[in-house]
Amino acid sequence: MTITVACIGAGNISGRHLNNLREMDDVRIVGVADVALERAQAYATRYGCHAYRDYQEMIEREHPEALWICVPPFVHGEPEAYAVAHKLPFFVEKPLATTWEAAQALSQSVSQSGLITAVGYHWRYLDIVERAQELLQNRPARLALGYWMDSTPPVNWWPKQAQSGGQQVEQTTHIFDLARYLIGDVTTVYGTGSNIDRAAFPDSDIADVSTATLTFRTGAVAQLASTCLLDYPYRIGLHLFGEGLGIELREFRVYIADGPESKQEHLAQGDPFVREARTFLDAVRSGDPSAIRATYAEALKTHRITTLATRSAAEGQALAVEAAQ
Ligand SMILES: NC(=O)c1ccc[n+]([C@@H]2O[C@H](COP(=O)([O-])OP(=O)(O)OC[C@H]3O[C@@H](n4cnc5c(N)ncnc54)[C@H](O)[C@@H]3O)[C@@H](O)[C@H]2O)c1
Q: What is the CATH code for 123-270+304-320?
């Protein structure tokens, strides 16, 4: 049986999702909405569906059975609330919002609705992350070192704190999420960060260098560093260290140091973006969300940590996760 889907946002990441959805035999794309109508029209032509400027009109007319929400961070809130009001299961891209308060305000109605939701933390669907998980079961990570050292993405909202939430919230969130996924609950967060005037980005007010020191309930500790000052994706990944075990996860490869002088490299197999979409759609069909690795509620826990890192940097003090208001 075919499942109908619609997408809000016709930008970079929605193109990737729609390309994958188009290849699925049991999926029919019925609409794309974008405030920039010409973008929605270009995607509608490409994916053989209708274009809308207003996503509410799209949902009312097309009655999709599942919704993809792929808008910039500052736009979150209304589309999700609309999906909840219309009992429409949704897949939403990370981050959940620019601030903690905005996502938290929404989370109660999302969880009360019982809707199937999924968030685009696609690293969780990598087979190399599953391999790391297996290895860490007997030798849990005690130390993690993560980094997102990259260029400044070429979308105008990205370097603006009010529109993206900053690099830790918007981008390094994948690494924060992976650390949580592989280690567990975070108990304290100490963030640092600063910015300088950059001629190429006159509107930038985000920290262009930042760090976060985390402690976990297990006793593990982590240091996650971010910068957007480079010209290309220089280094993105997470190192994990346990007794006699070192793991370096990059997005599509893993290095495992396991035993004296043994270092193996494995390339990821399969597309995690396809797997996350397939898992969400199967859950929508069956009504069983148990295979979804990042639901809205789960993603909210990561958003808590990234937003606390930003707040900690502003306040100049470490913050205990449970005590923080
Ligand atoms: N999972 C990943 O690896 C990954 C990769 C890239 C981007 N993302 C996330 O996806 C989100 C979007 O990023 P992007 O790079 O696609 O941005 P983008 O700027 O390329 O696309 C966003 C689109 O949303 C549209 N839009 C804005 N407000 C809207 C509204 N109210 N209704 C309808 N459309 C609206 C914009 O006009 C734009 O076309 C971000 O949160 C980003 O973090 C995730």
A: 3.30.360.10
